[in-house]
TrEMBL record:
Protein's name in the database: MFS transporter
Organism whose genome encodes this protein: Candidimonas humi
UniProt domain Major facilitator superfamily (MFS) profile: residue ranges: 5-394
Pfam family, one: MFS_1
Superkingdom, natural source: Bacteria
Amino acid sequence: MRNTLAPLATTLTVQSLVSMAVVTVPVLAPAAAPETGVPASYAGIFIALVYGAGMTASLVSGPLVQRFGAIRVSQACLVACALGLACIASGSLPLFIVSALLLGAGYGPVTPASSHILAKSTPPERMALIFSLKQTGVPIGGALAGALIPTLVLWSGWRMSALLVAVACMITVIFTQPFRKALDSDRDPAKPLVVASLAGPLRYTLGNRDLRRLALCSFFFAALQLSLVSFLVTHLTLNTGLTLVHAGLMLMAAQVGGAVARVIWGALSDRWGRPTSVLGFMAIAMGAAAVAAGCFTAQWPLALIALVSVAFGGTAIGWNGVYLAQVARLAPPGKAGDATGGALAFTYAGVLFGPPIFTLLVGWGTGYGVAYMLVAIPSVVCGLWLLGHARSAAEHKEKELGPMEND
C-alpha cells in the first residue's frame, strides 16, 4: 500500500488525540484541586507515572502489533485513554493512580504502532518527512488541550471536560475502523504472546549497534526536551523578570518552533539522505540553544529571548520525526514496531528521569541557568558521536564503491 495519505491521516489523528488526553490532566489540575484536595503541583508526579507506564507499554507493543494489527492496538490505546480520563472525572485519588497507568498504557504503544503502519506504506525517500508530519501530532495534541480545555472547564466544569475528551477518543476509535482491514492485513493471529516475545523489542534495539546508538542518544535528547518544556517558564520568570504571560508566550514559541521544525528537519533529512548526520547537527544545535537559554538575564531583549526559544524548540522538540524514521529504516523487515518499541524505552526513560535530574541540579544550588548548560553537555557529546559515526560510515561506503567506480 504505497499511498501514504490515509495511513498518515489515521496515525496523525490517533497521535493527536492520545497526546491531548495525556496533557488534559495537568491542564485540568488547577480547576480540580479545590474539589479533590490534590495540589495542582502533583501533576508532575502524575505525568511521571504516565511516562513510566508508557515506557513499559512500548516494550510490549511489538508482539501486540504483530498479532492484533497496528490499527487494533491504536484503537485499544484510545480506549485506555478514554478510561483513564473517566477515572479522572471520578475525583477519586486511588483512581487518579489508575488513570495515570491507563493513560501510559495508551500512550506508549501508539508510536510503535504508527511506525509499523508508516514503515510499510511510505516510500524510503519520503520516510523522514512523513514520520515528522505524524509526530506533529504530539504538539498538536498539547496545543488542543491548552486551547480547548480551559474553555470547556468554564462551560461545563472539569469533570465533564475530562469526559468530553474521553468521548473524542472513542469517536476516533470509530473513525479508524474502516481502515483496519487494509492497514492490519499483515497481522499474524497465531503470533504467541510469551515472555520471550515481549523481550523482542529490547533485543532488536540492543542487538543492533546503530539502533543502540540512536536509542542511547534519544535518552539525552528527551531529557533535554522535557527540561525545556518543564522549566523554561520558571527560568524566565525568576531570572529575566518576564511576567508569567510573557514567559508562557516564550514556551508557546518554542512549541510552535518544534512543530514546524519537525517537518523541515524531516524534509531536509530525506533530501540530503543522511539522517544520522542531521540528528548529529540537531543535537549540537539543541545543546547550543540550551546554553544560550541558560544565559538569559533581565538585560536580554524580548525579541532575542523569543528567537532563542524558537531555536531551542526547533531542535530539542524537532528531532523526533527524523529519529523514528531512522529507527524504522534500521529495523528488520516487518519489525518496525518492535524496533521502535525498544528504542522508545530509552526515549521514555529520558522523559522520566530528565526533569528530576534537572530539579536535583537546581536543588544543589546551580540555578536554572547553569542547570540548562549542564544538561546540554550530553546532547553535544551525542551529536559529535553521531557525526563521527556518519563520517566513518560514509568513508567505508566510499572505499567499497571505489573499485566499482574505477571499473
